[in-house]
Amino acid sequence: MIIGYTRPYSEDGDLDTQLKALQKYNCDKIYEEKTNSVKKRVEFDHMLASLNEGDTVVVYKFYCIADSTRHLIELSEYFSEHHIHFISILDEVDTSTVEGTIFFNMMKRVGEFQHDVISERTKAGLQEAKLKGKSGGRPKKPDYNVHRALDMYWSKKYTIAQITEATGISKTTLYRYLDN
C-alpha cells in the first residue's frame, strides 16, 4: 500500500502543492495534518498505526514528516525495522533503492557523530569548570528559606502555593526535603 502524508510548514500553509506531488505516486491513502503543530500530529499517529510490512510512505519533503535530523533518523530506523519503504519527493530519497538505503545509513552515522561531538564537548566543559573550582547545577537555596518552608508546611496553616511564593522554594524542592 502506498501511504501519503502531508503537513503544512506554517500555520496558514497550503497543502495543494504537496497533494499534487503525492497524486503522481498513486497513493492509496493520504493522511493530511491540518496544523503544523509538533505536539498535535493526530494524522501522523494514525498513519504510523496503519502501516504494515511492505507499505511505502511518501512525503513531499523531509520537513513534512520529521521535526529534526534525529527524528528523521529514528523514523528511518523504524521504517527499516518494519520493512516499510520511504520516499521523500523533493529530497529525491527512496529507500527501496540502494542509494536511498545508503543515504539513510549515512544520516544515521552523521547523527551518531553529532551526538558524540556534543557529548565530548560537554564532558570537556564540565571537566574544565571542575578544574577551575566551579560546580554545575542550580545554586543551592539558603538553608533559612528551606527551614522556613518546612516550618510553614508542618504548621498546616499555608497552602503549597503560599509557601513557594513566600520562600522562593519550588514545590519540587519542598517535596524533596519532605521526603528526606
What do these coordinates show?
The chain is α/β, with parallel strands linked by helices. The protein folds into 2 domains: 2-107, Rossmann fold (3-Layer(aba) Sandwich); 143-179. Helix content is 54%, strand content 11%. It has 8 helices and 5 strands, in the order E-H-E-H-E-H-H-E-E-H-H-H-H. The protein has helices at residues 16-23, 42-50, 62-65, 69-81, 98-131, 143-155, 160-167, 171-179; strands at residues 2-6, 29-32, 56-59, 85-88, 93-94. Strands 2-1-3-4-5 form a 5-stranded mixed β-sheet, sandwiched between helices. Helix 4 packs across helix 5 and helix 6 (143-155) runs antiparallel to helix 7. The longest helix is centred in the middle third of the chain and has 34 residues, at 98-131. It is elongated. The mean pLDDT is 87.
pLDDT < 50 stretches: none
Structural class: alpha/beta
Identify the CATH architecture of the largest domain: 3-Layer(aba) Sandwich
Under CATH, the homologous superfamily of the largest domain reads Resolvase, N-terminal catalytic domain
Overall pLDDT metric: 87
CATH topology of the largest domain: Rossmann fold
Write the element-wise H/E pattern from the N-terminal end onward: EHEHEHHEEHHHH
Q: Spatial order of the strands in the main sheet?
A: 2-1-3-4-5
Strand content: 5-15%
Rg measurement, Å:
25 Å
User: Which range best describes the helical content: under 10%, 10-25%, 25-40%, 40-55%, 55-70% or over 70%?
Assistant: 40-55%
- Compute the number of helices: 8
CATH class of the largest domain: Alpha Beta
Tell me the number of strands: 5
Count of separate structural domains = 2
Largest sheet: 5 strands, mixed
Shape: elongated
* Termini gap: 57 Å
Keywords: DNA recombination, DNA-binding
Family: Belongs to the site-specific recombinase resolvase family.
Organism: Priestia flexa
Protein name: Recombinase family protein
